[in-house]
């Protein structure tokens, strides 16, 4: 599943179509596709892993899910979920969720929850964590209503940086470490964005998909953790378990 930084890249790449009129629309989405015909795109926005195509009175929400893809100014052989043709190119989405949100987009999203948005509010994230002291930090970091845009790669890398075991309980983690985790979720997301743009993301991984801890020269453990049962990679020597 693409994480927030990858959706930011999609937004940048699609920006050429902002202000453009859709001259042809097609796809096998369940939405009323014809509603988009002749409409002008006002802007593109992102909220975490959601890509938002904003029109004057509604927004099309694209979620790429686990296997979704997109193509700009080219097509795949498979039929798109949504295809929009403009005078200066085309934008195609495949194997994804497409929904229409009526009215003001701000009624649907709190942009202060997005770790890459200028409105990101780390204090609000801390308040949300404090309300769930018995939750494992590996689950809390993946809560999109707290850390919108953070996915499993970012989760693993942030916890390794902060030397916190993924099965630690939120309420047992020292306050200074919890604040560091919150900060790193945003910091790492922007680093992720830069590395991905430069096609060098994987070479910066310290824990994700690794076999040996770079700090301790001991085996990295791989385990599905928390109620979300997502893969965690961690060192039991330098990542402290708080329970």
UniProtKB/TrEMBL annotation:
Catalytic activity of the protein: Hydrolysis of DNA containing ring-opened 7-methylguanine residues, releasing 2,6-diamino-4-hydroxy-5-(N-methyl)formamidopyrimidine
EC number in record: 3.2.2.23
GO molecular function terms noted in the UniProt entry: damaged DNA binding; DNA-(apurinic or apyrimidinic site) endonuclease activity; lyase activity; oxidized purine nucleobase lesion DNA N-glycosylase activity; zinc ion binding
Residue ranges of every copy of the Formamidopyrimidine-DNA glycosylase catalytic domain listed in the record: 2-101
Key words of the record: DNA damage, DNA repair, DNA-binding, Glycosidase, Hydrolase, Lyase, Metal-binding, Multifunctional enzyme, Zinc, Zinc-finger
Designated name of the protein: Formamidopyrimidine-DNA glycosylase
Pfam families tied to this protein: Fapy_DNA_glyco, H2TH
Every FPG-type domain range: 206-240
Matching InterPro entries: FPG_cat, FPG_N, H2TH_FPG, Ribosomal_uS13-like_H2TH, Znf_DNA_glyclase/AP_lyase
Family named by the database record: Belongs to the FPG family.
GO biological-process terms attached to the record: base-excision repair
Coiled-coil boundaries: none
Family annotation (SUPFAM superfamilies): N-terminal domain of MutM-like DNA repair proteins, S13-like H2TH domain
Keyword presence, DNA damage: yes
Transmembrane spans: none
Gene: mutM
């Amino acid at each position: 599943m693409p994480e927030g930084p990858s959706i930011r890249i999609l937004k940048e790449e699609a920006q050429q179509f902002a202000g453009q009129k859709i001259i042809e629309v097609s796809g096998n989405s369940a939405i009323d596709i014809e509603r988009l015909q002749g409409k002008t795109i006002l802007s593109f926005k992102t909220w975490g892993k959601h890509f938002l195509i904003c029109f004057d009175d509604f927004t099309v929400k694209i979620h790429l899910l686990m296997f979704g893809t997109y193509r700009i100014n080219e097509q795949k052989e498979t039929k798109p979920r949504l295809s929009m043709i403009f005078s200066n190119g085309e934008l195609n989405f495949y194997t994804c969720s497409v929904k229409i949100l009526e009215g003001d987009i701000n009624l649907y999203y709190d942009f202060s929850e997005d770790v890459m948005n200028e409105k990101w509010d780390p204090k609000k994230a801390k308040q949300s964590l404090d309300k769930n002291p018995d939750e494992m930090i590996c689950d809390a970091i993946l809560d999109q209503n707290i850390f919108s845009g953070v996915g499993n790669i970012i989760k693993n890398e942030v916890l390794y940086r902060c030397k916190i075991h993924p099965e630690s309980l939120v309420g047992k983690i020292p306050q200074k470490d919890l604040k560091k985790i919150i900060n790193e979720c945003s910091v790492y997301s922007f680093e992720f964005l830069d590395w991905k743009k430069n096609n060098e993301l994987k070479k910066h991984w310290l824990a994700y998909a690794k076999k040996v801890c770079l700090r301790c020269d001991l085996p990295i453990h791989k385990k599905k953790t928390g109620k979300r049962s997502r893969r965690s990679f961690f060192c039991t020597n330098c990542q402290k378990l708080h329970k």
